[in-house]
Every structure is written in C-alpha cells, then in structure tokens.
Amino acid sequence: MMPRERLTPKETQVATLVWEGLTNREIGKIMRTTEQVVKNHLRSTFDKLGVWSRLELAMYVASHGGRNWLEDCERPVSVQARAAAS
After folding, report:
1. Angle at 52 between CA 8 and CA 83, to 5 degrees
2. What is the pLDDT of residue 76?
3. Number of folded domains in the chain?
4. Are 11 and 48 in contact (CB under 8 A)?
5. Which domain does 23 fall in, by range?
6. pLDDT digits (tens, 9 = 90+) for 10-33
7. Burial of 11 (0-12, 13-18, 19+ CB in 10 A)
C-alpha cells in the first residue's frame, strides 16, 4: 500500500487544501471544524506521508496528482469552496 492510500478522506481533503494554499483557519471553515482539528489531521498526514512541513506536503500532493487527489475525497472542494469560506 502506498502512503497516499493510508490517508483518510479528511486527511486527503486537508492535504489538497494545503496544496491549494489555504490556511488552517480557511480549511477549518470549509470543513466546518476547528483549527485544532485541522492541525490534528495535518499531524497525522505528515506522519503517514513522511513529510515535515506544509511546504513538503504541498510538494508531495503536487507530485502525486495535485487536483486529482480530490477524486477520493468525501466531499470534493475547489477554489469556489475557498471563496465561500472567505
């Protein structure tokens, strides 16, 4: 199993939103959760993917399909969702 396949749908969603450049606060608004929950998802995602920072996570997502990660999310999000969070 590839590291990417170990992520939950929420972790996949958070990783994709980090790749899109959103802050934890913006991600929390989109996912209708707190910043702390977003941080928890990030920590777990970092561990599963073997990355150490948001930049490394964004680079990992970019090199493994970028926007195609959204296909496996419970609820796809997009740039329109980012605008709705503002």
Report:
1. 60
2. 44
3. 1
4. yes
5. 3-85
6. 999 999 999 999 999 999 999 999
7. buried
